[in-house]
Design a protein that fits this description.
single chain; 87 residues; mainly alpha; 3 helices; 0% strand
Length: 87
């Protein structure tokens, strides 16, 4: 069994299950949101308008530090991932 890596199998299995769960949860949430906002009722039209306004006026300025930190850690993760086969 020199060709079988238990950790690689665990990692791939975990990735498949968590990836599938994430995709299904995201799609379900988006479908529920779209169903909740669908229709011609006055309060639903107001919610669609308000949501569009919030999305158009969103400012990333207060989040700059957090976004920079996420970018830094993601870059570090990618570098480690590339260097992993060399170890």
């Amino acid at each position: 069994m020199s060709g079988f890596d238990l950790f690689a199998f665990y990692r791939m299995t975990l990735f498949v299950f968590l990836g599938t769960y994430t995709v299904l949860l995201t799609v379900t949430s988006i479908r529920r949101l779209l169903a909740a906002l669908a229709g011609d009722l006055e309060h639903k039209q107001f919610m669609r308008t308000y949501l569009a306004y919030l999305l158009l006026t969103a400012r990333l300025e207060p989040l700059r530090g957090e976004l920079a930190q996420i970018a830094f850690w993601l870059t570090l993760l990618l570098i480690l991932w590339r260097l992993h086969p060399l170890v």
